């Protein structure tokens, strides 16, 4: 099975997985969330993630989304995947957000390689913008407020 692996500092990855369940409930069993807990060492994270990998069984592949490229959680998870000889066929992207994760979980089984990366990163980038609420309210029409 191909899993979407969310990696973060703290509980961000768990919260993102919970949010994904609202949009893609049928795919949430294909999402694994792992976060570096406050006060936890990277060695403890590595051991915990090795246990998760063992529970998933063999023959799986991964798309990894990390909160920060180069951050301890992501580098630790990548090291564990490399030790398990899984990293070379894994796509790893950083700067995860909800639109990126939603696209990744929906497209991971239909697109691959550069096409997958382009689709997921495009969605992530296009979702980053300032929201400017309309201020064209008519002062006489208070019901619209």
Automatic annotation (TrEMBL):
One of its GO terms (biological process) is phosphoenolpyruvate-dependent sugar phosphotransferase system. It holds the Pfam family EIIA-man. This is PTS fructose transporter subunit IIA. Gene3D superfamilies: Phosphotransferase system, mannose-type IIA component (3.40.50.510). PANTHER family: PTS PERMEASE-RELATED-RELATED, PTS SYSTEM MANNOSE-SPECIFIC EIIAB COMPONENT-RELATED. Keywords: Transferase. One of its GO terms (cellular component) is membrane. GO terms for molecular function: transferase activity.
